Amino acid sequence: MGDIKIELFLEKMPITAGNFLKLAKANFYDGVTFHRVIPDFMIQGGDPLSKDDDPNNDGTGGPGYFIEDEFSADFTNERGTLSMANAGAGTGGSQFFVNIADNSYLDFNKEPVAYKHPVFGRVLEGMDIVDAISAVERDGHDRPLENVVIQDVLVE
Fold this sequence. Notes:
Elements: E1 5-8, H1 14-25, E2 34-38, E3 42-45, E4 81-84, E5 96-99, E6 119-125, H2 127-134
Antiparallel strand pairs: 1-6, 2-3, 3-5, 4-5, 4-6
């Protein structure tokens, strides 16, 4: 669909942004899909299981480890930011999402803390591509009907 250029907040979010950078440099994200797409909310990717032929396991995979939760009051889940997806406290790994809308209720300073999502980057260029991904046809489980594949992640 096109290129998306992001900035990582490495200084203020060294664990989360550093983990994303490490995985990107290892080509972990190459070939994974945006497996969950919810218009006016977010697009989610980063699951290595999205590369296989079983759509039912998409959203359940990761890098084989979890990272420590970290949060900064300097960032909010606003349109165009990248956040760590998780299934609760201490479960972040490789899955991330791009906010399509302002979703500040996902910030760490809102309740309940266990289900909050740390912001670790933002889209610099290509928000039109993010919007296009958010508009693809989906099934009843918010999975795109046609795969939206991350071809590769280039690190500058």
